[in-house]
Specification:
It is a single chain. The chain folds into two domains: about 100 residues, D-Maltodextrin-Binding Protein, domain 2, CATH 3.40.190; about 100 residues, Periplasmic binding protein-like II (D-Maltodextrin-Binding Protein, domain 2, 3-Layer(aba) Sandwich). Helix content is about 35%, strand content about 20%. It contains seven helices and seven strands. The longest helix has 15 residues. Pfam families: SBP_bac_3. It comes from Klebsiella michiganensis.
Length: about 220
């Protein structure tokens, strides 16, 4: 919502925030029901066929541990050896951990143990009770929880499109003519420092970008 406010304020528009489900935004934007979607949407080759994108953040996955944990760095394959890590089944982050684990096993290192939870409450309990050593998922979620409760801390991040980089973007209908003004607004906020204030407020500074790009290479390109 903060990013949407920056864009609307820069363009002199009144922001009308419409909460919606993840499943609804593609049809909503394509049909003109919504002017734009600002919902942690990653740029992909397939999506660029129907939508235009103005990037505003790196797509980043974060490793979070209890604020009192002795763990201080999880950034590469060797760092997960022997750890119990909360991860979503069937997600890209699970695929990353499994690939890293395969590398570790070839080197004779201890395997990691995936911890699967049913919901957010179970995830929090597993981490705080010590049943899991770390959580690995979208950094935007981990950063929000850390800022809200102070009970967790970031100890490492990985590109969301690992091994390639990926970006999160404001998404508009392809050919609508909105993407250029949105990009201009975002770059203005970046230059003024307002953009950095928003990201730092929620602990997302590690995901900042130097400038907004229109329709960059995405996942699948």
């Amino acid at each position: 919502v903060d990013i949407a406010h920056l864009v609307a304020d820069s363009l002199g528009l009144e922001l009308n925030v419409v909460p919606t489900s993840w499943e609804d935004w593609p049809l909503g934007v394509a049909s003109g029901k919504y002017d734009a979607a600002v919902s942690n949407i990653t740029v992909t080759k397939e999506r660029k066929e129907k939508f235009d994108f103005a990037t505003y953040r790196k797509d980043s996955l974060g490793f979070y541990v209890k604020s009192t944990s002795p763990l201080s760095k999880i950034e590469k394959a060797e760092d997960i050896a022997g750890l119990r890590i909360i991860v979503g089944s069937g997600t890209n982050q699970e695929a990353i951990l499994l690939a890293w684990n395969a590398e570790n096993l070839k080197k004779g290192l201890k395997p990691f143990t995936p911890v699967y939870t049913k919901d957010d409450a179970a995830q929090t309990l597993a981490l705080q009770s010590g049943r899991a050593d770390a959580f690995f998922g979208p950094n935007v979620i981990g950063a929000w929880k850390a800022a809200l409760t102070g009970k967790t801390k970031l100890v490492g991040s990985v590109d969301g499109g690992w091994p390639k980089a990926a970006h999160i973007a404001v998404t508009v209908k392809k050919g609508s003519g909105l993407v250029e003004p949105v990009q201009t607004a975002l770059n203005g906020a970046i230059r003024s420092g307002d953009y950095a204030k928003v990201l730092n407020r929620w602990g997302e500074g590690v995901e900042s970008i130097p400038q907004s790009e229109i329709n960059p290479a995405g996942l699948g390109d």
